[in-house]
Amino acid sequence: MSVLLVLPIVIPLIAAAVAIIAFNHRSLQRIIAVSALVAVLIDAVFLLIAVEQDGVQSIQMGGWAAPIGITLVVDMFSALMLVISMVTVLMVLIYAIGQPGADEDQPVFHPVYLVMTAGVALSFTTGDLFNLFVAYEITLAASYVLITLGGRREQVRSGMTYVIINLLASTLFVIGIAWVYAATGTVNMADLAGKIALLPDGTQTALSMFLLVVFGIKAAIFPLFFWLPDSYPTARMPVTAVFAGLLTKVGVYSIIRTQTLLFPQHRPSTILLVCAGLTMAIGVLGAIAQNDMKRILSFHIVSQIGYMILGLGLFSVAGVAGTVFFIIHQIPVKTALFLTTGLVEESTGSTALNKVGGMIRRTPLVAGLFLLAALSLAGIPPFSGFVGKLGIIQAGFGAQEYAIVAVSLLVSLLTLFSMIKIWNGVFLGTPEDPTLRLASAAGEARLPTPVLMRSATVALVAVTLAIAVFAGPIFDLSERAAQSLLNPTAYIHEVLR
Amino acid sequence: MSFVSAFVVAVLFSVGVYLLLQRSLSRIILGLALMGHSANLLLMVVSGGAGKAPVIGTFGPDDVVADPLPQALALTAIVISFGIISFLLALAYRSWVLTQNDEVEDDLEDARIAQLGEEEVRRWWRRSS
Question: What is the spatial distance between Cα A211 and Cα A274, in angstroms, rounded to a whole number?
């Protein structure tokens, strides 16, 4: 069974190598990429079933026992993350294949995309702090190429910001690993859990805060989010969508993993709650000021990260379960919103609120998809966002943190306001830009959006609806994930057998 | 831990931060490279003082052997930062080809919204005074 843990990393990497060899056969590359991701998805589902039935799964790479070799380990949280991210990655790939010009003249698109998938899978499965750094670098190196693919001027400008800020974070990560190793003599996370507890209090706090800053840059939490709304919107839409859905959540995953597993005695509850409140509020206020669909949604990425940190900051089973469910809901919803934005851009050539208008008459399907995803993002019942926010807010009441609950409710309201702003600007109303109105009056500005793009978006929105329908069982799984996160003895025993 | 290596780590890091805060892209990249060196040197400092045998049995059977793990970590980190810095240099060259300028550009959309905000404040100020 343990081979299941290796496959999500090995399959995309091998497929990437084959896809590079087939660099001028685009249809072959597409077949390779799609079948690799389908295989990884099936593998991830089997892994989830195995974890659900037999508990934590692990494998020691190269047969070296735990503290020396690299361990891959999957608990309920990792398995859930792996399944939902692979669903999302697959849908975005299908969307990218359907979009004209997304991969046709880019022979490196498919290989790089597959490498990024392998990096994301490795960051969810690794049980070793330095290996987590390597996983980050695999993901990031691929994402650097994806964000600047095409080399247009604004892409180079914003890609530069993205590369520099992430390289800085990675350098800090290496320094953090050096400190952790200097203090404990190991980088295996299960081994660290026991050894960090023996350190003096001050050292523990320093290491915990340093790792929080490192992952906080990647996750875009409050004082460290400034790079995100600038760099994400300029890439091609499938790339922006998958970054928005996945990459910041890998950072959030690492925050949750390290804060719960490595520092059980020192839980920075107050700092996390304050950061969560500010992340939510500043993200949503930034979104309200914007005037372009892509930029509004980019600020919402930041705002929603606040909810995840809020649930973690409570450090109760209810709070962390809410966070796990919220991440599961957020990955497909955020991606679906960006994919509908891509459909709008594809049929009008713009996403600026004052240039586009009246889309509901031209493409009612896109309008419907956007509405479903937007209501889910704002947390309107009965959609999945409501269940996630309800879980987190109930946990907040349980912990008597009323101030932060009030902030989160207000932010929900502002999120709804900003979604209505997009709805009024893009789907209702008439375009202010006369050239665009002329184009739409003379018929379609462009050809209707390709079927593949639309069906991928429909499928992803269907996934978010399915999360709402099966909220009960998924919330049970999230609760079990939270229990194993807050009481990681089973995880540690499985690794250090 | 030797004082000299700790001092070099600190100097490299400070110079790196100083360069990172400049406006010109080539300086930022040099700054990042220096910070990377500082992190790698820190890994070396972590592995213990100098003078330990690199391989078991070099100086004799009872020698203390240098910890190989931080060295392996540093090697990995060096390779990664080499790759990323090369990519960044290519990107900086592309930026220079496109703009004929080595400076980091402003985000125009962001500047526009900041300007709107300032106008709003000024209007409010005029009305209230």
Answer: 17
Spatial separation of the C-alpha atoms in residues A390 and A127, rounded to whole Å: 31
The pLDDT tens digits for A361-371 are: 778 888 899 99
What mean pLDDT is predicted for residues B83-106? Answer: 86
For residues A143 and A120, give the distance between their C-alpha atoms in angstroms, rounded to a whole number: 11
Provide the residue range defining the domain that includes A399. 3-495
Nearest in space to A228 (alpha carbons), one of A147, A149, A171? A147
Residue found by looking up tokens 């604004």 in the block: A154
Residue ranges covered by each domain of chain B: 3-49+67-128
CB-CB neighbors (< 8 A) of A153 in chain B: 98-99
Residues of A in Cβ contact (< 8 Å) with B117: 289
The residue-averaged pLDDT of A208-218 equals 93
Q: How far does Cα B70 stand from its chain's mean position?
A: 19
**Chain B residues touching residue A159 (CB < 8 angstroms):** 91
Q: For A349-450, where are the alpha helices, taking DSSP H only?
A: 359-362, 364-378, 384-398, 402-422, 434-441
Count of the separate structural domains present in chain A: 1
Contact with chain A for residue B12, Cβ under 8 A: no
Place of tokens 């399907």: A365
What residues have CB less than 8 Å from A434, skipping those under 6 apart?
none
Contacting residues of A for B78, CB less than 8 Å apart: none
Specify the 3-state DSSP secondary structure of A430. Answer: coil
Residues of chain A in contact with residue B100, where contact means CB-CB under 8 angstroms, are none
Q: How many CB contacts within 8 angstroms connect chain A with chain B?
A: 101
pTM for this predicted structure: 0.92
- Looking from the CA of A29 toward its CB, the CA atoms found within 13 Å total 25
Q: Does B62 touch chain A (CB under 8 A)?
A: no
Q: For chain B, say whether A160 makes contact (Cβ under 8 Å).
A: yes
Would you say the ipTM is above 0.85?
yes
Window 26-55 of B, Cβ < 8 Å to A: 28, 32, 35-36, 38-40, 42-43, 45-46
Put simply, the answer to whether A181 touches B98 (Cβ < 8 Å) is: no
Architecture of domain B3-49+67-128: Orthogonal Bundle (1.10)
State the best of B42, B96, B99, B115 to mutate against chain A, taking most chain A CBs within 10 Å. B42
Q: Cβ(A1)–Cβ(A57) under 8 Å?
A: yes
Q: Are A254 and A215 in contact (CB under 8 A)?
A: yes
Contacts of B108 (CB under 8 A, 6+ apart): none
Q: Determine contact: B56 vs chain A, CB below 8 A.
A: no
What Rg value do the Cα atoms of chain B yield, rounded? Answer: 24
Average pLDDT (A288-311) is 90
The dihedral region occupied by A185, where left means phi > 0, alpha psi between -120 and 50, and beta the remainder, is left
